[in-house]
């Protein structure tokens, strides 16, 4: 049976799913599905679990495709409270624990595929953005200690306005680069690990969703003296504080992760509302006297660009219409 709220067309569910689809994830089945299961570790709740959405992706570093339970809340800030946030987080964990073990899940959402399903995303969008307070939001979740009923490891990722706006900005910029005539290929870049090679794919994995540095690599074609040449371009989407320490740390990560062998390095710095003069001064110091100036040998051409803020609700609504 479909979950009533979902069948009514909850725009919150549709928004987060549309954005994650844009970031390379796959929606499975329908939204707003009720899963029936008598989970013995949840004796104090009914046997109906309303699943807003179920999505999968086949990312790096794992042998199997990953499945995630998606929960969405579309709220007013004045009606939020630590108790409500705790309830949403607990409810999401219970669904991640119980739903994958049910026959309904296999029949209506997973369709018998072998996947790793041990994580969930709780998306909480505050409609009255002018009242949203990120410090308070983070405090709500910092105080939550989730306790799985079984001795297994689960991941629950909470996304508030700040995180959702960041992801919308990331997707908007990546999409813009994809559409440029000079760009012949572009993918997100996953550095090698001790037990795996590096990977390139048009996908933002769970681990990248909240990362301060998201890497990508592209190939572009440029005309030089009537000759078309191909240039390798490294891309960093920079969401950390815009200061010299952060930029130097980012550049060190570029070197350590094998991104310094490109012809050009573009760093898209997220607009964090600092004064333009302050931003320009920090960037000039980084470029001339920071970590790039210490490079031995030929360093890539460095271009610092601004990653403009994109509103999550507006951007996701556009994706829903496409």
Automatic annotation (TrEMBL):
Protein name per UniProt: GAPS4 PD-(D/E)XK nuclease domain-containing protein
Domain GAPS4 PD-(D/E)XK nuclease residue range list: 1-150
Record organism: Halolamina salifodinae
InterPro entries linked to this entry: PDDEXK_GAPS4
Pfam families referenced in this protein's UniProt entry, alphabetically: PDDEXK_GAPS4
């Amino acid at each position: 049976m479909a979950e009533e709220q979902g069948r009514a067309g909850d725009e919150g569910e549709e928004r987060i799913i549309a954005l994650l689809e844009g970031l390379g994830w796959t929606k499975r089945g329908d939204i707003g599905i009720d899963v029936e299961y008598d989970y013995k570790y949840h004796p104090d709740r009914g046997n109906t679990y309303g699943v807003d959405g179920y999505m999968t992706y086949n990312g790096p570093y794992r042998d199997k495709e990953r499945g995630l339970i998606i929960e969405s809340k579309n709220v007013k800030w004045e009606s939020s409270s630590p108790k409500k946030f705790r309830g949403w987080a607990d409810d999401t964990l219970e669904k991640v624990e119980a739903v994958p073990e049910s026959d309904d899940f296999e029949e209506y959402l997973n369709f018998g595929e072998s996947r790793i399903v041990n994580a969930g995303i709780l998306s909480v969008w505050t409609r009255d953005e002018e009242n949203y307070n990120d410090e308070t939001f983070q405090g709500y979740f910092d105080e939550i200690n989730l306790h799985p009923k079984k001795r297994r490891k689960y991941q629950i990722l909470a996304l508030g306005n700040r995180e959702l706006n960041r992801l919308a900005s990331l997707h908007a910029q990546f999409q813009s680069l994809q559409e440029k005539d000079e760009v012949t290929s572009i993918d997100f870049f996953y550095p090698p690990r001790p037990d795996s090679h590096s990977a390139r794919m048009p996908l933002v994995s769970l681990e990248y969703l909240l990362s301060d540095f998201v890497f990508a690599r592209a190939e572009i074609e440029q005309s030089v003296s009537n000759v078309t040449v191909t240039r390798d371009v490294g891309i960093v989407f920079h969401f950390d504080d815009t200061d010299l320490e952060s930029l130097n740390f980012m550049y060190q990560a570029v070197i350590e992760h094998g991104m310094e062998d490109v012809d050009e390095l573009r760093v898209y710095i997220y607009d964090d509302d600092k004064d333009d003069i302050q931003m320009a001064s920090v960037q000039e110091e980084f470029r001339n006297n920071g970590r790039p100036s210490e490079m031995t040998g030929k360093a890539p051409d460095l271009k610092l660009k601004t990653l403009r803020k994109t509103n999550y609700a507006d951007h996701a609504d556009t994706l829903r219409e496409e």
